[in-house]
UniProtKB/TrEMBL annotation:
PANTHER family hit by this protein: MULTIDRUG RESISTANCE PROTEIN MDTG (PTHR43414)
Protein's cellular compartments: Cell membrane
Protein name (Swiss-Prot/TrEMBL): Major facilitator superfamily transporter
Organism listed in the record: Secundilactobacillus mixtipabuli
Membrane topology summary: Multi-pass membrane protein
Length: 407
């Protein structure tokens, strides 16, 4: 009876956090595809300067997130994950709303940096579910939770692009703030956490990796998260500008950019739960490696695209690989990490993702400014191949270590 009640509670949390993730994904992605266009309205910037400011606006959020995430993760292991969810939701409510009032590009960048320091709703949702979900349901649960944020990121750019085209680029920021207020209320009312502080306070002083048997694999997942995020976010600063170039500056560029940004989410939304369940069945390693290979194969042809339609096709296919990457890395860490340090490990993972979200856009801004928008896709393909090499090496080394221990 107690087990049934506990199981019902983690399922109710999953539903509430899925909705919170959906709102966070939709709100945060509402303005991202046309952020460079918003910046271009704040001054008459040359191409190199515009791409630089766009890169700073994207990466500033994630840079501050990378710095503060370990602190929030350590605090979550002491106080619980729900307070961290509330902190993130309320923080983004305030900063997103203020961003809509930005009078110039430097205020915009500053507010984006502050927003990063208080963000982390989706990562804390993963951490809370990882501490509660049964081991045999972890892959499917993480995949399902991913569909929330991805589903939001799917509809967000389309709605944001339509609203921006009709009412201006500031309105989506106000909507983002309002939506995060709704997420705050949902989290406060419906998310329940049965949190017990550590009995031994000295445990919190130990390394978060102290109780992990497969340390190399967990570190590989953290590095993989960084490189995946770098690859997937690299296109963000230039997507609306590249679409504008492909459309020869004709038509509703904001709307088209929103659709192109949203297309990978369609595939991820459909594939993530299935690939998560497949990982539970055949093991996450096979799914992760296959996903990385497929990702590289899909990024490379984007260098040669000549139309928005062909770009959209490959962006859609990349979404399938996305479904096999981040949810699977979350699953591996969930299975390998003791519950007492799960928030700290997930916070390190969030920092790695944030660093990737800094590296990707800044590299893309540099490549696009020096060469051309198309060369960003060659750079991204290289990042995916590096990621593939790290994952294969880590699993081989871990296999040798386990084999030697048994000999």
């Amino acid at each position: 009876m107690l087990k049934t009640k506990k199981r019902a509670q983690w399922q109710r949390n999953l539903y509430a956090l899925w909705l919170g993730n959906f709102i966070t994904g939709a709100g945060s992605s509402m303005s991202l595809p046309f952020l460079p266009l918003f910046i271009s309205e704040m001054g008459n910037f040359p191409k190199w300067e515009l791409t630089l400011y766009a890169g700073l606006a994207f990466s500033g959020t994630f840079l501050s997130q990378a710095i503060v995430s370990p602190f929030w993760g350590k605090l979550a292991d002491k106080t619980g994950r729900k307070p961290m969810l509330m902190r993130a939701a309320i923080g983004m409510t305030i900063t997103a709303t203020l961003t809509g009032f930005s009078p110039n590009v430097w205020i915009l960048i500053m507010l984006r940096v502050i927003q990063g320091g208080f963000s982390g709703y989706i990562n804390n949702a993963y951490a809370l579910m990882a501490s509660e979900v049964p081991a045999d349901k972890s892959g499917q649960t993480m995949g399902t939770l991913t569909t929330g944020s991805v589903g939001g990121m799917l509809v967000g750019p389309v709605i944001g692009g339509y609203i921006a085209g009709m009412l201006g680029y500031r309105i989506p920021f106000y909507l983002f703030g309002g939506m995060m207020l709704i997420a705050s209320i949902i989290t406060l009312v419906y998310v329940k956490e049965d949190f017990h502080p550590l009995a031994d306070p000295k445990y919190a002083q130990r390394s978060a990796f102290a109780g992990i048997k497969h340390v190399r694999v967990v570190w590989a997942m953290i590095l993989s998260s960084m490189l995946i995020q770098a690859a997937t976010t690299s296109i963000n600063p230039i997507i609306s500008l590249f679409v504008k170039e492909l459309m020869h500056n004709q038509g509703n560029i904001a709307m088209a950019s929103g659709i192109i940004a949203a297309l990978p989410g369609i595939a991820t939304l459909l594939a993530a739960p299935r690939l998560g369940a497949l990982g539970d069945h055949i093991g996450p390693r096979k799914v992760l490696i296959a996903g990385l290979i497929f990702c590289a194969v899909m990024f490379l042809p984007m260098f040669f695209v000549q139309s928005v339609t062909s770009l959209g096709v490959f962006r859609f296919l990349v979404g399938i690989s996305d479904a096999a990457l981040l949810p699977i890395t979350q699953t591996v860490m969930t299975l390998a990490t003791p519950k007492e340090s799960i928030s700290r490990i997930f916070s390190y993972n969030q920092s790695a993702q944030a660093i990737g979200s800094v590296i990707g856009p800044m590299l893309a801004a540099g490549v696009a400014g020096i060469l051309d928008y198309r060369y960003v896709f060659l750079m991204t393909t290289g990042l995916v191949l590096i990621n593939l090499g790290i994952v294969i090496w880590a699993y081989r080394m871990d296999y040798k270590m386990v084999r030697n221990a048994h000999n």
